[in-house]
Amino acid sequence: MSDRLRNRCLVSVAFLIALFGSAPFASAARPKRATRQAPPPAPAYDAAREVTIHGTVDDVKETLLASWRSSAQRIVLATPEGPVTVELAPSSFLKARDFSCARGDRVELVGSPVVDGDGTVILARELRKGGAVLLLRDEAGRPTWRQPLREVRFLQAGID
Asked: So what's the pLDDT on residue 111?
């Protein structure tokens, strides 16, 4: 074998070692990309545990909920038993129905208590304020904002 041919073979082998031999080390040294994890499932509404709560709105919060992929409205109610956090619905749903809560509003709601990362929260199914009743979930607890608009009812009623 000639020197020229041997040099070409050595260069080719060195190139292949450099190319493939360092690949496991290069991938180990490279930082791994963060993988997107699915958001945790939203707490389930349990109609068997429904409660009725009367109170005065003490605080209104906009929160970003991964399970809804939008901002949602939560209110804190002052009740005789203490403060209660209530998750209403996506803000866009409330805005589309021209329904809002403000500090000092007296409300009555029906909902199901669930435990999430913030502690115990009431998932509201029905919210009464003034003479209006807004249905946020159906009787089984399915959100009305995921149902066709014709199935969502906005009722007029009084609060005792």
From this structure: 96
Assign domain 47-156 to a CATH class.
Answer: mainly beta
More confident residue, 124 or 159: 124
Strand ranges (E), the chain: 51-65, 70-79, 82-90, 106-116, 119-129, 132-135, 154-156
Query: Which distant-in-sequence residues (6+ apart) come within 8 Å of 85 by Cβ?
Result: 74, 75, 76, 77, 118, 119, 120, 121, 122
Instruction: Judge whether 63 and 74 are in contact, CB under 8 Å.
Output: yes
Positions of E strands within 68-131: 70-79, 82-90, 106-116, 119-129
Token couple for 17: 């070692």
Question: Given the DSSP bridges, would you call strands 119-129 and 132-135 parallel, antiparallel or unpaired?
Answer: antiparallel
Domain map of the chain by residue range?
1-30, 47-156
The mean predicted confidence, pLDDT, of the chain is 78
Strand partners, 112: 123
Q: pLDDT by residue (tens digit) across 71-86?
A: 889 999 999 999 999 9
| pLDDT tier, 43 (very low <50, low <70, confident <90, very high otherwise) | confident
